[in-house]
Design goal:
mainly alpha; two-stranded parallel ribbon; 246 residues; two-stranded parallel sheet
Length: 246
């Protein structure tokens, strides 16, 4: 959604609205497009310069460009490109429902003979956010979490506040006008069978995303400890989007 808002605000974006076959698979879920490119997996030596076109981004010459990068890709990106990182996030319960819906769309597109996709929405949610927090704390780049639900509920206050933080000179009124609450498609959410002890931990991490938990050495230590425990129980999450980027 933020790529759409920033584009509406007059900023230059990198990426296609519907790369590859996304118009055929996810158009109904997001008819305004995703604005993705090969850079979703990170801005580093594997993607920059572009292995097909040879086009190269230089940090000093790309300060005013906006690019969508997946959470894992941010952690793999060169720090020189991370001027400001806006992380569009959802609560873990609603994220799970949204991810399962996306899985159903992909399964229908793949057909009955395609191998099953191993998706783990709750693991992905945890590790995406935990790794971003730890990476930003370690490398010192500015990052801000913005709840998807809050943008839809209060665009007139949330969007201008984020644009002021970005200091990007965007057309605030046009960006706010681009918010379409009616496009929200996932309403119901539940714990997904998560054990009660982990519900407490997931809620604590979610509270941090809302700015309710301080980022201090104690929180970072807890986050590392719980991430290691979760990884030991389940292994690292599979990335169901890895073969869709481009």
């Amino acid at each position: 959604m933020w790529m759409q808002l920033l584009a509406a605000g007059g900023l230059s974006v990198v990426g296609e609205a519907f790369p590859l076959d996304w118009r055929d698979t996810f158009y109904e879920a997001n008819p305004r497009g995703f604005f993705e490119s090969t850079l979703v997996n990170g801005i580093n030596f594997t993607t920059n310069p572009n292995p097909v076109t040879g086009a190269r981004l230089v940090p000093e010459e790309s300060r005013n460009l906006v690019v969508k990068v997946f959470a894992a890709g941010v952690c793999r990106s060169e720090a020189g490109f991370l001027d400001r990182v806006v992380v569009s996030t959802r609560g873990w319960r609603s994220y799970r429902r949204s991810a399962l819906r996306a899985q159903e769309v992909l399964a229908a597109s793949d057909g009955p003979d395609a191998p099953a996709r191993r998706t783990t929405p709750l693991l992905r949610w945890w590790f995406d956010h935990a790794n971003l927090i730890l990476d930003a704390a370690g490398r010192g780049y500015p990052m801000r979490f913005v709840r998807y639900e809050q943008v839809l509920e209060r665009p007139g206050s949330v969007v201008p506040d984020v644009l002021r933080w970005l200091s990007c000179g965007a057309d605030v009124a046009s960006a706010v006008a681009a918010v379409e609450p009616g496009l929200r498609t996932v309403e119901r959410a539940d714990n997904g069978g998560l054990q009660a002890t982990w519900v407490v931990d997931y809620d604590r991490l979610e509270a941090h995303l809302d700015g309710l938990a301080p980022v201090d050495p104690g929180f970072l230590s807890w986050l590392r400890e719980r991430s290691a425990a979760l990884r030991a129980l389940s292994g690292p999450p599979a990335d169901p989007w890895a073969d869709r980027a481009g």
